[in-house]
């Protein structure tokens, strides 16, 4: 067995044995190289392999940290309760970060779902969902400016779209056609969710409408880390 494989096995054993707990910072490449009397490149390759396997994640300029592998959150894919409300009801240490609000180029499928014309302005609002410090999902909502005229100004501060819709007078939410699939993360999704390319994502594409008026409120794309959830259909 090569030096890299031995080091990978050693660190996995230490993580499983409790020497390193979720979110603990691991020794630097130089520290580990000195400790195990191996070249720094061996440590770098070992850390890369551990990240691929989902045991650790890296922060730019800060080092490598132990990934939380114990999350098994019940994921309920039906109902009209927001994701934020579901997490709070289950008592998770939960937070949402707004990561962008951007106008999009014309996309036929999204515009069709929103019942928008080619001349309509559509924004996408992205939120990163985090439980116990671990990013678990990315939610992207697409909305028409004609329905929400202030979205370009307020979109960057929204963390709950349901709460935003309620503030605009919409109270009853109904689901639209939903498509469920499994995909592997691209580089941007890996960086956001701190997961390896080997961890599949549950991809949910759907929409939401106001039950009373029939107004289409959003088209949504949601990416869930498959290793963090159990599924309730």
Write a short abstract of this structure.
The protein has 233 residues and is α+β, with helices and mostly antiparallel strands. Helix content is 28%, strand content 32%. It has two domains: 64 residues, Winged helix-like DNA-binding domain superfamily/Winged helix DNA-binding domain (Arc Repressor Mutant, subunit A, Orthogonal Bundle); 160 residues, Chorismate lyase (3-Layer(aba) Sandwich), CATH 3.40.1410.
Set down the secondary structure blueprint.
Elements: H1 3-16, H2 29-36, H3 40-52, E1 56-59, E2 63-66, E3 73-76, H4 83-89, E4 94-103, H5 108-113, E5 122-131, E6 134-144, H6 151-154, H7 161-167, E7 173-175, E8 179-183, H8 187-193, E9 201-210, E10 216-225, E11 229-232
Parallel strand pairs: 3-11
Antiparallel strand pairs: 1-2, 4-5, 5-6, 6-10, 7-9, 8-9, 9-10
């Amino acid at each position: 067995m090569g030096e890299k494989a031995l080091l990978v096995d050693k660190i996995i054993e230490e993580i499983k044995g409790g020497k390193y707990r979720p979110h603990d910072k691991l020794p630097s490449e130089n520290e580990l190289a000195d400790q195990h009397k191996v070249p720094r490149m061996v440590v770098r390759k070992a850390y890369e392999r551990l990240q691929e396997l989902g045991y650790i994640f890296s922060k730019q300029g800060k080092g490598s940290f132990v990934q939380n592998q114990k999350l098994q959150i019940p994921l309920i894919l039906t109902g009209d309760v927001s994701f934020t409300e579901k997490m709070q009801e289950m008592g998770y240490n939960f937070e949402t970060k707004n990561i962008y609000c951007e106008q999009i180029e014309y996309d036929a499928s999204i515009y069709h779902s929103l019942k928008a014309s080619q001349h309509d302005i559509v924004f996408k609002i992205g939120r990163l969902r985090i439980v116990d410090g671990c990013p678990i999902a990315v939610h992207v909502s697409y909305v028409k400016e004609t329905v929400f005229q202030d979205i370009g100004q307020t979109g960057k501060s929204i963390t709950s779209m349901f709460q935003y819709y309620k503030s605009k007078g919409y109270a009853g939410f109904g689901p639209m056609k939903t498509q469920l699939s499994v995909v592997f993360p691209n580089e941007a999704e890996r960086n956001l969710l701190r997961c390896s390319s080997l961890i599949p994502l549950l991809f949910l594409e759907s929409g939401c409408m106001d039950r009373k008026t029939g107004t289409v409120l959003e088209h949504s794309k949601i990416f869930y880390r498959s290793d963090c959830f159990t599924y309730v259909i």
